[in-house]
TrEMBL record:
Its cofactor is pyridoxal 5'-phosphate. GO terms for molecular function: pyridoxal phosphate binding; transaminase activity. It comes from the Bacteria. This is Aspartate aminotransferase family protein. Belongs to the class-III pyridoxal-phosphate-dependent aminotransferase family. CDD domains: OAT_like. Keywords: Amino-acid biosynthesis, Aminotransferase, Arginine biosynthesis, Pyridoxal phosphate, Transferase. The keyword Transferase applies. The keyword Ion transport does not apply. One of its GO terms (biological process) is L-arginine biosynthetic process.
Length: 454
């Protein structure tokens, strides 16, 4: 006979826990419930979720819309394989995503998360090139310090040296140009606009060097999230990128896994750049954490190229277009529209930016405050005047994360060595339903957390 199970499972990191935790040496609270913008642990402590996990929980943790949608869908039909059936939820989700999309983005391929979305976009791009008679196009150009997911294809397409290092022999080598990161890289003798044109022009140089006929796509985040901390490109950068891609027949893939689905104040972040990509990857806020779901929205040209070629996309996952996940995502899209949440993102985003600037604008360890909508980053530095980063051994990001949890705050600090540039930042991405009082609570708790670390 087995021994009776303990009433409460073993804590993270203890010898009795059988979970393969990612950070087994870090003690974590045990989450038991969610109420609006708060997560509650098993001791009853409440944490204000100022980062939506990692920019996921855009409706907070107890929104009745997706909860009911999931319950109803599971009762009716939990799963129907998309190679046999379409369904109301899949069709409606695609309609909603296309209705709000820029340019000729017109067809939605549904997957289960961000890495899958990026892999799918890369394969769509490749198959399109083959179908239109340009099989020599296979090279992916992306940016240094970028992150596009952790599966091998997505990791191989990214430019984050730290995340790639262990797996390098398994990854595509890739070509990486500079990110658009004005705080660190703009020269004193150039305007922001000139800086943006200069770094965008690195794409043209990379294409020419690789051989334009071999380049398949340029992949970039519209607003750089996890690795840089909510860094929007400067004015004109993406328009120049689009021009260069068009000049050489290179596809533009925008990764909006983090920045998309309303986080920056428009459904697609690229709407604010005045460009439409050929493919856009979305996930995270698409299911708002109620279900894992992601998608690639493809231009008509890509779809037509494949359909009028071999006639089908050589790709697929068992859970692509999972009907319950899609039902949750439909409910999220409806809530965003019915509750006018994009307006709240813009309005509370402005308020958050103002409060952060008031409180931390002269903080000796906050070098830069940036972002868009409810997607804000604070760059943490040892010295504000020189922009000198913290010594990595100080582990400022890890310390801040722990201190924030102590203070009942969930923020998303990241740090470490990034391609020779050290950098630490704290990312804020609160739910779209956040109120002014809750923004104040976030800023107060962040202040207290920073004070206990620095
Ligand atoms: N792309 C970007 C920009 C991301 O921020 C992430 C995750 O943080 C991904 C892709 C990968 O998404 P997922 O973790 O859902 O696989």
């Amino acid at each position: 006979m087995h021994d009776a199970k303990p009433a409460r499972p073993a804590p993270v990191g203890s010898a009795e826990s059988h979970v393969f935790h990612r950070f087994p040496k870090v003690t974590m609270p045990r989450a038991v419930s969610g109420e609006g913008v708060y997560i509650v642990d098993d001791g009853g402590k409440r944490y204000i979720d100022a980062s939506g996990g990692a920019a996921v929980s855009c409706l907070g943790h107890s929104h009745p819309g997706p909860i009911r949608a999931v319950q109803e869908q599971v009762e009716r039909l939990a799963f129907a394989h998309t190679s046999f059936f379409t369904s109301d939820a899949v069709e409606e989700l695609a309609d909603l995503l296309v209705e709000g999309a820029p340019g000729d983005l017109d067809r939605v391929y549904l997957v289960s998360g961000g890495s899958e979305a990026v892999e799918t976009a890369l394969k769509l791009a490749r198959q399109y090139c083959v179908e239109i008679g340009q099989p020599q196009r296979h090279r992916v150009i992306s940016r240094r310090q970028s992150y596009h997911g952790n599966t091998l294809g997505a990791l191989g397409a990214g430019g984050n040296a730290w995340r790639r290092a262990t797996y390098e022999p398994l990854l595509a080598p890739g070509t990486h140009i500079a990110p658009c990161y004005a705080y660190r890289d703009r020269r004193d003798d150039e305007t922001e606009f000139e800086y943006g044109q200069r770094v965008a022009d690195e794409l043209e140089q990379a294409i020419l060097q690789a051989g334009p006929e071999t380049v398949m796509c340029f992949l970039a985040e519209t607003v750089a999230g996890a690795t840089l901390g909510a860094v929007p490109a400067v004015e004109g950068y993406f328009r120049r990128i689009r021009e260069i891609c068009d000049r050489y027949g290179v596809l533009l893939i925008l990764d909006e896994v983090m920045a998309g689905m309303g986080r920056t104040g428009t459904l697609y972040a690229c709407e604010q750049e005045g460009v439409a990509p050929d493919l856009v990857c979305i996930a995270k806020g698409l299911g708002a954490g109620y279900q894992p779901v992601g998608a690639v929205v493809a231009s008509r040209r890509i779809y037509d190229g494949i359909v009028s070629g071999s006639g089908f996309f050589q790709h697929g996952h068992t859970y692509s277009g999972h009907v319950t996940a899609c039902a949750a995502a439909v409910a999220v899209q409806r809530a965003i529209r019915e509750e006018n949440l994009l307006e709240n993102v813009r309005c509370q985003g402005d308020y958050l930016a103002t409060r952060l600037t008031e409180r931390f604008g002269n903080h000796r360890h906050v070098g830069n405050i940036r972002g868009r909508g409810l997607f804000m980053g604070l760059e943490l530095v040892a010295d504000r005047a020189s922009k000198e980063p913290f010594d990595p051994s100080f582990r400022v990001a890890a310390r801040l994360k722990a201190a924030a949890l102590e203070h009942g705050l969930i923020c998303y600090p990241m740090g470490g060595v990034l391609d020779g540039q050290r950098g630490d930042h704290a990312l804020l991405a609160p739910p779209f339903i956040v109120t002014e009082n809750q923004v104040d609570e976030i800023v107060d708790k962040l202040d207290a957390s920073l004070a206990s670390v620095l």
